[in-house]
Amino acid sequence: MPGEILLDVSELEPPEPLTLTLEAAASLQPGQYLRMLHRREPCMLYGNLDEQHFKYLQCKGTVSAVEVFIWREQDQKAAAVVQSIVDTPI
Asked: What's the DSSP call for residue 37?
């Protein structure tokens, strides 16, 4: 089971990015995290993730790209991997 699940929603129109991201997050297994790529900040996503007890970290890659890492709230293994990738305290 790979630790990272990559989901590129940058070419999709609303509400597909939100729907697909929430579905992918719901399927995360222990030790897995989701790396979601979007063309803009997915503002509607964050409240949904909070309600469903996910943690997330947004990174702006370029002017036209946003990367969001998502993992289950209690998953310390996934959190540690994400922290090592982004080199930012979580």
From this structure: E
**pTM check: above 0.85:** yes
Q: Residue-wise pLDDT tens for the chain (90 aa)?
A: 569 999 999 999 999 999 999 999 999 999 999 999 999 889 999 999 999 999 999 987 666 789 999 999 999 999 999 999 888 666
> Could you give the CA distance from residue 69 to residue 85 in angstroms, rounded to a whole number?
10
What span, in angstroms and rounded, lies between the C-alpha atoms of 84 and 88?
Answer: 8
Q: Which domains does the chain possess?
A: 4-86 (3.30.110.40)
What token pair was written down for 8? 């590129």
